[in-house]
Design a protein that fits this description.
elongated; 3 helices; binds zinc ion; two-stranded parallel ribbon
Length: 173
C-alpha cells in the first residue's frame, strides 16, 4: 500500500513538473514575443519620426541580470533593452544607455525638488504636476546629450500584445 502510494505520488509529482516546465516554456516564449513586438514597434515609429538615436534610460536600482525571466514586473529589463538595441541596429539607429539616477528627484524644467505623490506622479513647487516618466525622460536626454527640452508634447504611449502594438488614448503617432 505504502509503495503504491509512493509510486502514485512520484508520478503525480513528475506530471506536475512536466506541466510546470511546459507552462514556463510558453510564458518565456510569450515574453520573448512581447519584447520583440515592443522593440519593433518602438523603433519603427522612431524611425518614421526621423530619430537618429535612442536614449534608453536604465535604473541602477533594478535587477538587470539577477533573478529570473520575470524580474521587474514581467519585463526582464536587460532583455528588453537588448531587444530595442538589436532592432535599432536594423534601422541604423544609434542606441545609448543612460543612467536614470535622480531623474525623478528634481523638476526637469525648473530643477526644483519634487514631491512624489501619488505613485507615479511628481509635483513641482511651481504647481506643475506630471507623470514621473514624463519628468524623467527630458533628464535622461539631458544626461546623454546635454540638450535641454523645454516641454514634452504628445508623449507617445502604446500597449503591446502578442500580435501588435496599439497606441493608448489616441497618443501619437
Ligand atoms: Zn518645475
Amino acid at each position: 500500500m505504502g509503495i503504491t502510494n509512493n509510486i502514485g505520488e512520484r508520478e503525480a509529482h513528475d506530471e506536475l513538473s512536466r506541466e510546470n516546465s511546459i507552462l514556463f516554456g510558453k510564458l518565456k516564449n510569450t515574453l520573448f514575443r512581447l519584447r520583440r513586438n515592443y522593440a519593433s514597434h518602438l523603433v519603427k515609429v522612431l524611425h518614421e519620426l526621423r530619430a537618429s538615436a535612442i536614449c534608453l534610460g536604465y535604473s541602477l536600482n533594478v535587477a538587470h541580470e539577477e533573478g529570473n525571466e520575470f524580474t521587474l514586473n514581467l519585463w526582464s529589463y536587460r532583455k528588453l533593452m537588448d531587444a530595442v538595441e538589436l532592432k535599432a541596429q536594423e534601422y541604423g539607429l544609434k542606441a545609448v544607455e543612460v543612467v536614470e539616477h535622480d531623474t525623478s528627484k528634481y523638476c526637469s524644467y525648473h530643477g526644483a525638488g519634487l514631491e512624489r505623490y501619488p505613485r507615479g506622479v511628481v509635483s513641482c513647487p511651481s504647481g506643475r504636476r506630471l507623470h514621473s516618466d514624463l519628468n524623467g525622460a527630458p533628464d535622461i536626454l539631458k544626461n546623454a546629450t546635454n540638450s535641454v527640452v523645454s516641454t514634452v508634447k504628445n508623449p507617445f504611449s502604446f500597449l503591446v500584445n502578442h500580435n501588435l502594438a496599439a497606441p493608448i488614448n489616441g497618443c501619437k503617432p
